Amino acid sequence: MPRRQLISYIAPSAPATRRPAKGDEPLLRPEVGFTPQWYHEAVGIDFGQRWHVDVRYRHETVVAMRHELQRRFPGANIGGAGHDDVPLDLLTGVFGTCMIAAIFGLPIVYTANNWPNVEHQYLTRDRMAALKVPDLVANPMFQDLLRQVDEIERMQEQAVGFINWQGVLNNAQRLRGPDLFVDLYEVPQLVHHLFGVICETMLLGIHGLYERQRAAGIDYQFATISNCSVNLISPLQYEEFVLPYDRRIASGFDVIGIHNCAWNADPYVPSYATIPNLAYVDMGLDSDLEKARRLLPHTRRALMYTPMDLANKSMDAIYEDLEQAARNYAPCDIVLADIESGTPDERVLGVIGCCEELSK
Predict the structure, then answer these.
(1) How many CB atoms lie within 10 A of CB 253?
(2) CA 168 – CA 281 distance, rounded (Å)
(3) Cα–Cα distance between 78 and 6 in angstroms, integer?
């Protein structure tokens, strides 16, 4: 059923996220995305602070990016190009992956040709112990997000799209820095306090945004978690420190998706399989794809195909990789994210063609 699965979604210039599946996806479904640098060079867009706070400017750039995608990749439906979607997605990509860190007060650093980041103002252990769930009604970061939703709705009635809320581990690393991984051994209860505060803040933020979108007829009933840093902790540490909060987030929604980047997810897949409403999971080519399909038979799976492999492997080698995915892992998404400028358009179109051929 469509509501029981999520698929990868990359809006123009946005970090990859997830959205509900329609239920008619092909065996191998390519999802293609380019970095802000690619669009900066191709279209001349400045992705500085204005892009993230000025809705009308962002509307102009989204239209320009989609026209460029349609011109260079006709019929490929990359980033929605070629489809006159009404309303346009003017929300996905806003503040990059920094939303939770910024809610906790970390200043955002903007650049013209990249996603935003946050300053490295790491919490001390004393500040971790004193950390509380912020009042989002009085939080300037969250209120600016709602202001943008209001403005988008005035422009086109509905504010479709998603914020990248990350996951408790990613957000904790932004707030605490590399010392977090020492804390896991030395002050585990303090880590649980930090993760718990982050988890509740994420839930408040997601539900708060969804409630605001629902008032205009947009009804999202899922959450998505980014566990990009999970390979920096052991499977036992994931079970002890992260899984309880992933399950806590999952319990608040119909379904949940978990993103792992292109790492080997083998050590964590058994734990993911214990999350009953898991609707999406992705991993890298070095993972045991056949085992993942066996343990997660009802979960929409995705293969994160690295931009390095896309740019450097021969097309024959790429076809072999995709054939392996079709044989051992499909039905699945093939996520071609973070493609940099300099990667030939023909290479991207070639991979899309391979997916179409293998899906037949």
Answers:
(1) 19
(2) 16
(3) 18
Residues 6+ apart with CB under 8 A from 166: 97, 99, 100, 174, 202, 225, 226, 228
In this prediction the pTM is 0.96
pLDDT, tens digit, 9 for 90 and up, residues 54-111: 999 999 999 999 999 999 999 888 986 545 566 899 999 999 999 999 999 999 999 9
Confidence of residue 1 (pLDDT cuts 50, 70, 90): very low
Q: How far apart are CA 269 and CA 291, in angstroms?
A: 9
Phi, psi of 19 (to 5 degrees): -150, 165
- The backbone region for 177, taken as left when phi is positive above 0, alpha when psi lies in -120 to 50, beta otherwise, is left
Does the pLDDT of residue 43 top 70, yes or no?
yes
| Residues 281/265, Cβ–Cβ less than 8 Å | yes
User: CA-CA distance, 163 to 142, in Å (whole number)?
Assistant: 11
Instruction: Dig out the tokens for 328 from the structure.
Output: 């051992």
CA 184 to mean position of chain CA atoms: 25
2-359 fold: TIM Barrel (3.20.20)
User: 10 Å Cβ neighbour count for 105?
Assistant: 13
What pLDDT shows up at residue 85? 61
